[in-house]
Amino acid sequence: MSDDPVILRPVFEDDLPLLESFLTDPEATGPFQWHGWTDPGRWRRRWAENGLLGDDGGQLMVTAGADVHGFVAWRKVAATRSSYWWNTGIQLLPKARGRGIGTRAQRELVRYLFAHTPVVRIEADTETANTAEQRALEKSGFTREGVLRSAVFRDGRWRDVVRFSVLRDDVTAQVIRALT
Fold it and tell me: Domain N-acetyltransferase, which positions (predicted)?
């Protein structure tokens, strides 16, 4: 585990080549996130439009010490016209995986979204075979809800995913327990 605090920050223009590598380099992406070639220019266009921070979602860079390790993201999922929640994700460079950085980054993202948006629910999904991410989500305060069958198409076949969620009340209860 890295001892440096994990910090989330907005995407800078200098970060765009790193983000583009997640769309063009299967090794950087890792086995559970490579979904084939896609337009690497989309990051640059979206960054020019809104800095990758919009009303329907966003991206923040994950840093620890002087190093950039990847990014976290969230997107709006509408339940009704007047209610929504966030679905979150994370992508780390290979050198950052397995060091606790992802767990801390996801915890920070949950804190950020509950502090700055009125949602009551944040969810995350990962493939059933991605046990490391499942552990990271649980350590971040998420609760496993169930399996969505054949929800993601990757590498020639449909794959099941596990859905996790954390509620605003869960975080409040965790803070109260930590203070007592």
Answer: 6-169
Mean pLDDT of 20-32: 88
pLDDT tens profile 88-147: 999 999 999 999 999 999 999 999 999 999 999 999 999 999 999 999 999 999 999 999
Residue 1 is assigned to a structural domain of this protein: no
Whether 127 is in a domain gets the answer yes
Angstrom distance (rounded) from CA 105 to CA 111: 10
Residue 8 contacts residue 72 (beta carbons within 8 Å): yes
- Please report whether residue 117 resides in a domain: yes
Task: Name the average pLDDT for the chain.
Answer: 92
Cβ–Cβ under 8 Å, residues 80 and 73? no
Which residues span the domain enclosing 173? Answer: 6-179
Compute CA 163 distance to the chain's CA centroid, rounded to the nearest angstrom.
13
Tell me which residue of 130, 133, 140, 83 sits closest to 109, measured CA to CA: 140
**Tally of helices (H runs) and strands (E runs) in the chain:** 6, 8
Q: What CATH number does residue 116 fall under? A: 3.40.630.30
Rounded to whole angstroms, how far apart are CA atoms 10 and 126?
24
Domains contained in the chain, number? 1
